[in-house]
Amino acid sequence: MAMTRFRYKSVTPVGELVQGEMEAVTRRAVIERLHNDGHTPIRADEITEGSALRLFPDGFFRRTVLSGTDTVLLTRELATLLGAGVPLEGALVILVNLADDGPKHRLIQAVLERVRGGSSLADALEPYRRTLPGFYIAMVRAGEAGGALEIVLTRLAEALERAQSLKATVRSAMYYPVIVLIVAVISLIILLTQVVPAFRPLFEGTGAALPTSTKVIVALGEWLTTYWWLTFAVPAGLVPVLRNLYRRPTVRLAWDRTMLKIPLIGELITKLEVARFSRTLGTLLSNGVSILNALAIAVDTLGNRAMAQEASGLAASLKKGDGLARPLMASGVFPRLAVQLIHVGEEGGQLEDMLLRVASIYDEETRQALQRMLALLVPMITILLGLIVAAVVSSMLTAILSTYDLAF
């Protein structure tokens, strides 16, 4: 049988995150080999030749990724069926029959076929790792190993519901300022391309010298009228360039560090990441995953590379017996309140419960920080638009009055 090359990421028995490439017949063989070496697999993806030459990835024109809501519902439904005593295969059959045709139905159908072929649920979910949250499969694997899959799925659903609720809050809160910004930009474009050019015949007829500010505004209006397509082409061209640049580790690390230093925005990012890190780590620990493996997985879910870099050094401190709180405090990245609560949890032998409590606290802190940011953002956009419009109108009035030799 032909061998296929896979790119994998796993956690060693001492809690180190490693990644590399391996040749095997199937993805399951890669996972089994990692297990035999004492590793905890995180992902194993097949390396396809010539994938960089394809203009569109597979499934580009068909949505294949589960939405957050679908993931929560699927997890909750599967946990409920298992809790009612339905075997795993039977539960998947029921879910296939209940799901409408779409990404959810295709995923359950594929997982069901792999389970019928002898795969565990975690192994059956491996091809969809990019679709699911980072810690999802690790928790399912831990639940299967401990014989508590139903309990793990229930806790997973609860954790995903809280994360989904926070994401929905952030998204809905951003609607209003985005709408205000779009209206402001459209208003400014109309002013420069429709209103300002209407005064040009008046200025040319008098032959009077125009103020510098008026010349700049008229020139800007003419440029927008002639080269309006550049306002779409330039951003469309810059997006892929900036995206590729952001993927470079050094660039992304520098950018993420800068973002943490920006007032309000840095505070919001920190609270979001602390909530995500604490919930992932607490959920994994409460389901029997060793602290070193759980820490490696939790660090891998952090979106901010600067915070992830600081958190990645926690494994060395844990091996020395220093715990989590002391190195977190020394890093200076995690908030003092979160570190103190984690310290209390370590001292009281209730680390996982305290981590989940920290996650709940910082979920609420994130909502409050977002409300404060929006309370300043909307007025700032309105004031900025008002100042720009006032500058344009003032410049045009000055030019009109100067053509008639009027003075203020």
Task: Let me know the number of strands.
Answer: 3
CATH class of the largest domain: Mainly Alpha
Strand residues, percent: 5-15%
How large is the radius of gyration?
A: 28 Å
Helix count?
18
The CATH topology of the largest domain turns out to be: Receptor-associated Protein
- Briefly note the structural class of the backbone: mainly alpha
Q: How many independent structural domains?
A: 3
Question: Would you summarize the structure shown here?
Answer:
The chain is mainly alpha-helical. The chain has helices at residues 27-36, 68-83, 88-98, 103-116, 121-125, 136-145, 149-195, 200-206, 212-226, 230-246, 249-261, 265-286, 291-300, 305-312, 314-320, 325-331, 336-347, 351-403, and strands spanning 4-11, 17-24, 40-46. It has a three-stranded antiparallel sheet.
Structural notes for this entry:
By secondary structure, the chain is mainly α. It folds into 3 domains: about 5-50; about 70-160, Up-down Bundle (Receptor-associated Protein); about 175-408, Receptor-associated Protein (Up-down Bundle). About 70% of the residues lie in helices and about 5% in strands. Strands 2-1-3 form a 3-stranded antiparallel beta sheet. The model is unreliable at about 50-65 (pLDDT under 50).
Topology record:
Elements: E1 4-11, E2 17-24, H1 27-36, E3 40-46, H2 68-83, H3 88-98, H4 103-116, H5 121-125, H6 136-145, H7 149-195, H8 200-206, H9 212-226, H10 230-246, H11 249-261, H12 265-286, H13 291-300, H14 305-312, H15 314-320, H16 325-331, H17 336-347, H18 351-403
Antiparallel strand pairs: 1-2, 1-3
